[in-house]
């Protein structure tokens, strides 16, 4: 069995609704003049953009946040083509646009981001990562990083036939395995949040 330790993380979310760069920067400057933000160097941030917001606007906002000492948590792609380019794997929509199926192993350095549930038919190898706003289901070995509910969905779960993660995240809670002998049992497990911690349970 894999033992894990959970810790909460604080993420600053910036919602961008239009391309009025001057207005956006003016509002951000006013906010960051406050003492709280002045002392928050190193805080991770997430840019959440509405449809129609240009890449140029996003880059300007990102550069401003970086200049204040914050670090980007991840990009928030709006288009399916952007998602496919980032993942560098073939993705197939099934049932609805909110579910993605990946029919191959994910190798080190590959990252999949999706607004919905992700189903991986294969292994999530060390150094690979899946980020989903919904659930993550791995029909194989989960040995990389899985982040479910990454926009704050605490009801999301992570399921794997073999759970050997580098790191698990659900919403703003993350967990890392403790060092111990490798689990040789063949059983599927599900990770979910209970009492503000991520716990692993046998599936079913």
Keywords:
single chain; 204 residues; alpha/beta; Nucleotidyltransferase, domain 5; Pectate Lyase C-like; 2 domains; 7-stranded mixed beta sheet; 6-stranded mixed beta sheet; 16 strands; 18% helix; 40% strand; disordered N terminus
Protein model, in words:
With 204 residues, this protein is an alpha/beta fold. It has 2 domains: 7-74, Nucleotidyltransferase, domain 5; 89-202, 3 Solenoid (Pectate Lyase C-like). Helices cover 18% and strands 40% of the residues. The chain has helices spanning 21-32, 35-38, 55-67, 80-87; strands at residues 4-8, 12-16, 44-49, 71-74, 91-94, 96-102, 111-114, 117-120, 129-132, 136-142, 145-148, 158-163, 167-170, 173-177, 189-194, 197-202. Strands 5-6-8-10-12-15-16 form a 7-stranded mixed sheet, with no helix packed on it. A hairpin with a 2-residue loop joins strand 13 (167-170) and strand 14 (173-177). The radius of gyration is 18 Å and the shape is elongated. Mean pLDDT is 77; it is low at 1-6 and 75-97.
């Amino acid at each position: 069995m894999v033992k894990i330790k959970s810790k909460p993380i604080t993420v600053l979310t910036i919602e961008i609704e239009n391309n009025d760069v001057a207005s956006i920067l003016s509002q951000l400057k006013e906010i960051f003049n406050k003492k709280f933000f002045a002392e928050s160097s190193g805080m991770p941030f997430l840019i959440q953009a509405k449809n129609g917001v240009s890449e140029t606007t996003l880059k300007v906002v990102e550069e401003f946040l970086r200049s204040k000492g914050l670090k980007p948590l991840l990009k928030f792609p709006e288009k399916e083509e952007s998602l496919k380019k980032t993942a560098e794997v073939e993705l197939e929509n099934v049932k609805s646009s909110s579910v993605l199926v990946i029919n191959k192993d994910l190798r080190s350095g590959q990252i999949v981001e999706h607004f919905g549930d992700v189903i991986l038919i294969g292994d999530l190898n060390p150094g690979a990562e899946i980020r989903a706003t919904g659930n993550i289901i791995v029909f194989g070995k989960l040995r990389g990083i899985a982040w479910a509910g990454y926009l704050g969905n605490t009801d999301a779960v992570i399921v794997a036939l073999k759970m050997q993660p580098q790191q698990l995240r659900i919403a703003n809670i993350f967990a890392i395995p403790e060092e111990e002998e490798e689990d040789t049992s063949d059983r599927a497990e599900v990770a979910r949040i209970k009492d503000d911690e991520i716990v692993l349970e046998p599936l079913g």
